[in-house]
Structure formats: structure tokens, C-alpha cells
């Protein structure tokens, strides 16, 4: 089964992201807006119990982090994905490190660019048409993220939450 | 903000429900297949923290319950909703009672008929066309539910998980 670890931002930021996703993201209906902290990995039913325990141990040791999105970015020309770029502060970097280095699943191929996707799978033409405008409109939002969610994917591509982990001592 | 408390069944049962929902449920994309334990209620940001604590207290006192779905039912003629009917065993009945009687939110208007919706908002014609066949195909699945999820609704109608509660002592 496919799993991933994400943070769901507040309703306010999710609604804002969805206003774009509705038009520009074919994965719009598969999961609500999120920031991925650990990308897709495979685990079976036995393994995931161990992984969930390990995630709990990690999240226990971390504190809530500030999610600050202040600009629109793009992964083009690698992929035509447009996103709200989140500031990579120390807390978030440490949390990502603990869930990806020497942890279950493969080590990420790319550097960690924390973000909330607002558009993807665009043609180059579509991407180039809207990126300027989206960058100009921009985004400016700060909130505290105090929990992560372990999610799994159904056959139709949609994601269900398996478990929530609070970022604090008593978890 | 609108909240609700649900149980998400295993991937197996969710995939089965989605095979029908894809065709017959316009809410298909808003939430993955679920069994509602506490229907929609309103709460503000302060209230929900208290409610979450209270749900935690309730779920701590309950143990995992058996989810057994063995027939297809319909709420027609009240609404043209078709569902996998879950057996109302003592554990599930007690859990529902503790989250709905003398608890935050209004007392439910109807008796508790635990179910996983597979079709809704059908016209009477559509409903009558498919109910016989769906009943004949039937369903037969049993699993253990060991957690509930507190969810909230975004402006576009989709639902995000706010928190997970394990049905066991150490929660």
C-alpha cells in the first residue's frame, strides 16, 4: 500500500489553495491541500504499524512549527507544478530530516522544497500563461502546524488519513 | 466551521465502496468512504479544542469494535441513499451514544443506522433501477475499527482530517 506523511494547513489556507486547484490541479479531488513532509513510500500492513510507531517517536521529539507561505513558486521546467512556497525554517527542516534520513522508505531524490501545490500537470503553454499572474497575486500567510498525518492511497488515487501525530511531548 | 466524526474502513472496503460511489455518489470526491459516528455539527476554533479533548476522553474508554457489513440497504423513500449496512453491535452503539447523547452538538434526529454510503442524490427512477441489483450483489465483509477521525469541511465541500483518536486505553 502507498503511504505518505503530510501536514494539512488551516481551513483558511486550504480554501485559498483550492480556489486555484479547482481549476489547475487534476489531483484536486484526491486529497485536500497539504504540505508533504515524507513523500510516497510502500509498506505492507505489518510494516506500517512499525512505521507509525516510529513516526510517533519522531513527532514526540519535535515541537509545532511555523508555516509561512509568502510567494508563489514553480518547479518548471522539471515539472509544470506551481505552489505556495513555504519557508524552510529550522523546525521544519529537522522534522523532514528525521522522517527521511535513516528512516523507513527511500531517501528523497531532491532537496526539500516545502510547498503546498496549487497547480500541476499543466501543459507548458498553460503553465507559462498563468505563472506570471499567480506570482503577481502572490500569497502571504502564516500559521502554526501542530500535527502531521499519515495517509494511504486508495485504488482510485484518493488519500485517506490513517493516523494523526501531534507535534508535542504528550503526543 | 463544520465538523463530523467518522471511521474510515480498511482500503479493501473503501475500494469496494468507491467502485459504486464513482458512478452513483456526487459526494464521491469530497471524502473517502466512511461510517459516520457523529453527524455534522458546528464549532468555532475555541470550541473545537474542547470538543477534541472530550472525544479523546470518550474514545479512551472504548475498545475497538467489529465492523460487519453484510447487506445493502436504502433510506428510500426518505432519501434515495443506498449503503452498506453495518451491524449495530453493543460496542458501536455505546460509542455512538457517548458521542451524541449529552455531548457537544445536537442530539441526532433519527435512530442510528450505521452504514457506509455507496450511492446518494439519485432520482427515484435511478434509485429504483439499481437498488435491486445492488441488493442482489450484496456485500460481506468484517474488520476491526480501532480509530475514529474528527474531520472538518472546507468551502468546496471536501473534508479534511483534524485529528485521529485510537479506541484503546493509551490512546
From TrEMBL, chains A, B:
SUPFAM superfamilies per record: LigT-like
Keyword Ribonucleoprotein: no
Keyword Chloroplast among UniProt keywords: no
Span(s) of short sequence motif HXTX 2: 115-118
Active site, per annotation: 34 (proton donor), 115 (proton acceptor)
Keyword annotations from UniProtKB, A to Z: Hydrolase, Ligase
InterPro entries the UniProt entry points to: 2H_phosphoesterase_YjcG-like (IPR050580), Cyclic_Pdiesterase (IPR009097), YjcG (IPR022932)
Any one GO molecular-function label of the UniProt entry: ligase activity
EC number from the UniProt entry: 3.1.-.-
Motif extent (HXTX 1): 34-37
Homology family: Belongs to the 2H phosphoesterase superfamily. YjcG family.
UniProt-listed PANTHER family: PHOSPHOESTERASE SAOUHSC_00951-RELATED, PHOSPHOESTERASE YJCG-RELATED
Protein known as: Putative phosphoesterase ABIC55_000975
The species this protein was found in: Sporosarcina psychrophila (Bacillus psychrophilus)
Lineage: Bacteria, Bacillati, Bacillota, Bacilli, Bacillales
Amino acid at each position: 500500500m502507498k503511504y505518505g506523511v503530510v501536514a494539512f494547513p488551516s481551513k483558511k489556507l486550504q480554501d485559498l489553495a483550492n480556489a486555484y486547484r479547482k481549476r489547475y490541479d487534476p489531483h484536486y479531488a484526491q486529497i485536500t491541500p497539504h504540505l508533504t513532509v515524507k513523500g510516497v513510500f510502500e509498506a505492507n500492513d505489518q510494516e506500517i504499524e512499525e512505521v507509525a510507531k516510529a513516526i510517533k517517536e519522531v513527532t514526540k521529539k519535535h515541537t509545532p512549527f511555523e508555516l509561512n507561505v509568502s510567494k508563489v513558486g514553480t518547479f518548471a521546467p522539471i515539472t509544470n507544478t506551481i505552489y505556495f512556497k513555504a519557508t524552510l525554517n529550522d523546525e521544519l527542516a529537522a522534522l523532514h530530516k528525521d522522517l527521511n534520513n535513516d528512516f523507513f522508505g527511500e531517501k528523497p531524490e531532491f532537496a526539500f522544497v516545502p510547498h503546498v501545490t496549487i497547480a500541476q500537470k499543466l501543459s507548458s503553454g498553460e503553465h507559462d500563461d498563468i505563472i506570471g499572474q499567480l506570482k503577481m497575486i502572490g500569497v502571504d500567510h502564516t500559521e502554526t502546524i501542530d500535527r502531521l498525518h499519515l495517509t494511504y492511497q486508495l485504488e482510485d488515487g484518493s488519500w485517506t488519513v490513517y493516523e494523526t501525530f501531534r507535534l508535542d511531548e504528550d503526543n
